[in-house]
Amino acid sequence: MKYLLTAAFLAAGVVCASELSTKPQPKPNGRIESRFKAANEKSFPIVFMGDSITHFWESRGKTVYDKYFAGMEILNLATSGDRTENTIWVIDQVNWQKVDAKVIMLMIGTNNTGHRPLTPKVEGGPCEKPEDTIEGIKVILEKLKEKSPNTKVLLLAIFPRAEKASDGQRVRNNQVNAVLPTLCDGKRVFWFDINSKFLGADGATMSREIMPDMLHPGEKGYVIWAEAVKDKLVELSK
Fold first, then answer.
1. Measured distance CA(25)–CA(35) in Å, rounded
2. Where are the domains of the chain?
3. Which of 73, 32, 24, 26 is nearest to 52 (CA)?
4. What order do you get walking across the sheet with 74-76 strand by strand?
5. pLDDT tens, 177-199?
6. For residue range 105-153, what is the model confidence (pLDDT) as tens digits?
7. Could you tell me which residue, 30 or 24, shows the higher pLDDT?
8. How far apart are CA 140 and CA 145, in angstroms?
9. pLDDT recorded at residue 163
């Protein structure tokens, strides 16, 4: 499935995000540079990629990480604030032959939703539709296949955000998630949706006990995540 800019947006002169979400965008900083150094020095059977939600395994989720992933060699390449275009850039910085990853756990896209409106706030400004985010994730998967063809990818549904299911950002992420399974073949790329585990008994409401800021997991949220994915990561890394 191919997603294109609509004629209406082009006619309006609006910079829509399908090209922004798929064009590599550098985001150099000390944290990412240290990770690239590690990525060029040794192999890691498991790699994490994404944004702050994954990055924060090193801070908010560290106690949980140390308990559930102790002894597992994992390279975390996620960085706070990353969007799809940043992840595409990150892929190009890594010596994938050296890393020799067996499996990559990938979750990306909530910052594409959160940082760019559906319609421009100023004339000619950038906007982003769910289709643009999907296209960015599609490019990520294609680039990973090119760079590390024998590596499996565990593609996670973008986690729910906001308290209510009716929130615009939750709706947009759900629209992206609805299409992402079509990018998975069950052989190299595996779809994994654990979002229901973060929600209340009504299947819609999210509590601050799980995600204190309605975006990033707290300790309880990281426990839910770790318990859901650990066995799958072990399985795919064999």
1. 17
2. 10-236
3. 32
4. 74-76, 46-50, 103-107, 152-156, 189-192
5. 999 999 999 999 999 999 999 99
6. 999 999 999 888 888 777 767 789 999 999 999 999 999 999 999 999 9
7. 24
8. 9
9. 96
For 120, the token pair is 């421009």
Give the span between the Cα atoms of 127 and 124, in whole angstroms. Answer: 9
Residue 36: the pLDDT is 76
pTM reported for the whole predicted model: 0.90
Dist. CA 238–CA 236, nearest whole Å: 6
10-236 CATH choice from 3.40.50.300, 3.30.70.260, 3.40.50.1110, 3.40.50.10700? 3.40.50.1110
- Cα→Cα distances 117→2, 23, 130, Å: 21, 18, 10
The separation between CA 71 and the C-alpha centre of its own chain, rounded to angstroms, equals: 24
| Closest to 63 measured CA to CA, from 209, 212, 222 | 222
DSSP code for 23: S
Q: Give the DSSP per-residue string, 139-170.
A: HHHHHHHHH-TT-EEEEEPPPP-SSSTTSHHH
Q: Which two tokens stand for residue 200?
A: 């209340």
Q: At what angle do helices 130-147 and 168-179 cross, to 10 degrees?
A: 40
Token readout for 42 is 């040794």
**Which strand (E) or helix (H) includes residue 229?**
helix 219-236
Cα–Cα distance, 121 to 119 (Å, whole number)? 7
